[in-house]
Amino acid sequence: MIYFFDGSKDAFLTAFLLAFRDDSAVFTAGNRQLSLGQESIFVRTDPQKALQCEKRLMELDKNCIRELTLLLRSGEEERSQIAFDYLKLIAKRKRPVRCDLSQDAVIAATECMRRVTYEVHRFKGFVRFMESESGALYAPVSPDNDICDLLLPHFRERIPEIPFVIHDVRRAKAAVWDGSHSFTAPLEQAEIVLSADEQSWQSLWRRYYASVNIPSRKRLKQMKGYMPVRYWKFMPEKPAAATGDLPVREPPANHKECGDDVLHPLGSS
Amino acid sequence: MIAEETLKILTESAKYDVSCSSSGSGRKNTGGIGNGMPDGCCHSFTPDGRCVSLLKLLMSNDCIFDCKYCMSRRSCDVPRAGATPEEICELTVDFYKRNYIEGLFLSSAVQKSPNYAMEQLVRTVKLLRTKYNFHGYVHLKGIPKADYELVTEAAKYADRMSYNVELPSEKSLRLLAPQKSKESLLLPMKLLQREKAEFSAEKRKGFFLPAGQTTQMIIGASPERDGQILRLTQSLYRVTGLKRVYYSSYIPVVEDSMLPAMQSPALREHRLYQADWLLRFYGFDVEELVPEGEDLPLDVDPKCAWALRNMHLFPIEINRAPLEALLRVPGIGAKSAQKILTARRYTTLNFEHLKKMRVVLKRARHFITAGGKFYGSDDTATVRGLLTAAEQPKNAKQLSLFDAPSVLFSLPSGREAALAALTGEL
Lengths: 269, 426
Ligand code: SF4
Known about the structure:
The complex is a heterodimer.
Chain A: E1 2-5, H1 9-19, E2 26-29, E3 40-42, H2 47-60, H3 64-72, H4 79-93, H5 104-126, E4 130-131, E5 137-141, H6 148-158, E6 164-168, E7 173-177, E8 182-186, H7 198-212, H8 220-226, H9 238-241
Parallel strand pairs in A: 1-2, 1-3, 5-6
Antiparallel strand pairs in A: 4-5, 6-7, 7-8
Chain B: H1 4-12, E1 44-45, E2 51-52, E3 54-58, H2 85-97, E4 103-107, H3 114-130, E5 137-141, H4 148-157, E6 160-162, H5 170-176, H6 182-201, E7 213-219, H7 226-239, E8 244-249, H8 266-281, H9 286-289, H10 302-309, E9 316-317, H11 323-327, H12 334-343, H13 351-356, H14 361-364, E10 368-369, H15 380-391, H16 395-401, H17 405-409, H18 415-424
Parallel strand pairs in B: 3-4, 4-5, 5-6, 6-7, 7-8, 9-10
Antiparallel strand pairs in B: 1-2
The complex binds iron/sulfur cluster.
């Protein structure tokens, strides 16, 4: 049986209750699609069943729900199946399994979670804010996993006096700190009026970046391993990243990035 | 706002200092901007593969000293520049709030006099902490021969300080950095270490170098062998309680008859970092790694080399061996060793298990048994051959064709690169 659900935690738990004894269960988030030769159902959230399922799982392993939410944030196709297999093993053994490191289900879940938390860690460094006219900071991001709200506490502790928005342009949502509250909200496009000095600070940063590089030690492959090219898009240093040198002419501001319908005033190309 | 040209000059004179780590400080935000991140944080990477964590700058590159290897030295004809404490504070805060950097690494040439240069550094860090309310990471370089009062004053505001040993022996130091002396570098390190110990013993308020001290040595500008360098390293860790020793491959930036014209191969530097890692985290003593008058082998990493000299200790059974023994197996790092310890509580591990757990077996298989089974070769010569081949799969041919430093730079790959990431910011 194929179980479709909307990707939310509660829908997952509702479906889990139906499926955990089914050895050939396939779990997949997203819309019900035509599936050849296999029965499928679309499971809608039942809050009561979800709660019941959560309680039972928590009795077996009090950390597994936290792990489930992490797994569902993954951008990987198989995330629902990985989460299902992992929780099914807990249900079967009736105890935590996370230390049984040679089990396939545990390996898959551990690695999937690690990729999510690793991206959170990386983005604590790779997020780039720009300053708006009001002094608030705005950072467009496009991470592999659904993590923009996980970044919020880090920056709230760091710059509590400055309101900021971390905008996941791919998922059209934003994590917001308004100076006293934090929340997430859907956000398609943001129009930002930059502060008078913003472009100058970006260009100083590019200058710094190009100057601190040691050209005689070019190791681009390693560099791209540490900072994958897909993350460069919103970094002001992007024009210097591949070569270490600044382009002769500064790219025009308000440059529209193709394949992405958000107008971002970074001027990075 | 600081001028771009000034920033360029002050950065280019500072960039050969390899330390860029921002770890070790848990400073909290108490109003204002910034906090510490105990594990450190990389904000960008430059095409040379290095991490950008801190804004690394000199306050001035106008020096009265004349160290032979340095392009800021008095006798060098380079453009000079300097920045004011205000300019540096503003730059730090504006870069920091945009999340470009984790903090500031401020150093200076000996401008006018050691005390004048040190005063400028102290003024800047004080201003940053008090007027700008900045709680992010600050690493200050100590100026040799500055008064000790200035140095301790700096330590109250900085997270980390470093005096660079520069050269691995007193003789080379006298030759290449005539105005510095061993005492002018080691004494302040020891004094700071003592003061920090007193500070925490008396539970005094505030901070005193929460991230400790580090130092740096230039490799390949002078004739010392790896054995001598690592003995100095080990004593620095044990006697002065340093957090890190950094090694910086010599890169010729100025011409001098006393200096080599070639840059020192990055592979040598890499081997030193690996050995350093073994000293700090794997329970090795320098005596086990390399004799005083010799270099580390370049063809295999220092742990492999040790294992090949000690084949009688292997193979070990991974289902029973204690952590210390697992850590000494070539190819098994701290993470893999921990994974093995955890997983073997549930089942008797075989090679299939290890593979699935992503324990790299290329080298390890010659030194372990899993459930009694052995999949390696126990002939030392064969193993050595296999290991050197395992280490340089694609580059081996290139190496013999163009045995130049530029090729060596591109060498470390795969696991080596992962290790390089661990050994830090290189
Ligand atoms: S003291 Fe020596 S190493 Fe430092 S800036 Fe002056 S010349 Fe260079």
